[in-house]
């Protein structure tokens, strides 16, 4: 029997405020354990939470970016459960009345088709702390770091409208790009700024009712999301094929064994006790506040892509690659602002620059400033160096951080454009290669390419290729 997967994703996004959601403790990553704590985030008796306005601002911006409905009134609840890194034994979250519902994210699949995936809701909440376990064999010790407790989160819940692991990754990639563009989070998955829970179920193709789902918790990379979903679909399929029952449970992804493993059973969709938090007043978002924040929204990726196509006259593919990442888009624009032709800038950023950043795991700005790339491109455009020499200069720029002009002068790489100097080299090559001349006359185009290469070799790559080509053709026509 054929089974149809259904997938929904819950994304926990840490907001990039300087302080926590309900207190003034710092949110900086990597500080000494338990150094950023106070009576509020430690949950001490008598301590009262006060909502951070910066959290609300970023939350509204996130909702606007996915065309969601923002509610004028929302409320905080207490989500009660015990866990060692949750000091109060409850988490302040939003349940019955979240600030945002009914958003959407459009993805573009490999076959060129687009699909809109609904976002059920976004709500604000606080993060829990972090457990650290001993890495020493045979020592069963765990430590609690409460620096993260109280860090502001958005929980972004998709509709169960994702059909496979590839769509899940496309959805997450688009969501990550949007949140980076509006600068509400750094989306650093390695540091836990973006974490994913995946709900996976399958059903027979002749059945409309969704199957029993399993929730896979705390996936911290797109690779893990894809692998965990694919494994879970396979696991559930095997169970149904063997006439076994799928139980609703929470599972964890084990990257070493490439399997999901059971963490705990989950009998109800919401197995927590919620009630309104008596210490926090309602969140009031007037239409005026929402419109004011909307007017300050930055340009999003799809708007920027359309602008690049129209303003810079570059292909749609180029515009899509450049705008997929906000920093890449900014770098490209800075190269153009510094005077480089847009298409040439696009080619260099996408081909040469991005290849190096993937190799070195760094950003474009880490290689050298955009103004330096513009200078290199303009050295080619002016005819001072050839495209081939530019590749040599580029590698030297990456290694030394020197300006292209300085590298060209130091290494004597200025292109030869004097026609009489190039003509001497052409005459030498023709004299040395009479067989190539005969081959050319017989219609073998490769002979011309060979002779051009010989001239370039004699000039150590400095001869202007168009002039070389022109002189060779003129002399061959007379021979």
Describe the secondary-structure layout:
Elements: E1 3-14, H1 53-65, E2 69-70, E3 73-74, E4 77-80, E5 90-93, E6 100-108, E7 114-126, E8 130-133, E9 142-145, E10 152-158, H2 165-181, E11 194-204, E12 214-219, H3 222-241, E13 249-254, E14 259-265, E15 273-276, E16 283-284, H4 287-295, H5 301-312, H6 316-323, H7 326-337, H8 342-360, H9 364-367, H10 370-381, H11 387-400, H12 404-410, H13 419-432, H14 434-441, H15 445-458, H16 465-478
Parallel strand pairs: 12-13
Antiparallel strand pairs: 1-10, 1-11, 2-6, 3-16, 4-5, 4-15, 6-7, 7-10, 8-9, 11-12, 13-14
Helix pairs in contact: 2-3, 5-6, 6-8, 7-8, 7-10, 10-11, 13-15, 13-16, 14-15, 15-16
Compact summary:
This protein is of the alpha+beta class. Helix content is 41%, strand content 20%. The mean pLDDT is 88.
Main beta-sheet strand count, sense and barrel state:
9 strands, mixed
Which regions contain 5 or more consecutive residues with pLDDT less than 50? none
Report the structural category. alpha+beta
3D shape? elongated
β-strand number: 16
Percent range of helical residues: 40-55%
Rg over C-alpha atoms, rounded to the nearest angstrom: 30 Å
What's the end-to-end separation, in Å? 75 Å
Mean pLDDT: 88
Q: Into how many domains do the coordinates divide?
A: 3
What count of helical segments does DSSP give? 16
Largest sheet: spatial strand order: 2-6-7-10-1-11-12-13-14
Give the DSSP E fraction (strand runs of 2 or more residues): 15-25%
What does this structure look like?
The protein is of the alpha+beta class. The protein folds into 3 domains: 3-289, no CATH class; 299-410, no CATH class; 419-478, Orthogonal Bundle (Arc Repressor Mutant, subunit A), CATH 1.10.10.410. It has 16 helices and 16 strands. It has helices at 53-65, 165-181, 222-241, 287-295, 301-312, 316-323, 326-337, 342-360, 364-367, 370-381, 387-400, 404-410, 419-432, 434-441, 445-458, 465-478, and strands spanning 3-14, 69-70, 73-74, 77-80, 90-93, 100-108, 114-126, 130-133, 142-145, 152-158, 194-204, 214-219, 249-254, 259-265, 273-276, 283-284. Strands 2-6-7-10-1-11-12-13-14 form a 9-stranded mixed sheet. It has a 3-stranded antiparallel sheet with strand order 5-4-15, with no helix packed on it. β12 (214-219), α3 (222-241) and β13 form a beta-alpha-beta unit. The radius of gyration is 30 Å and the shape is elongated. The model has no long low-confidence stretch (mean pLDDT 88).
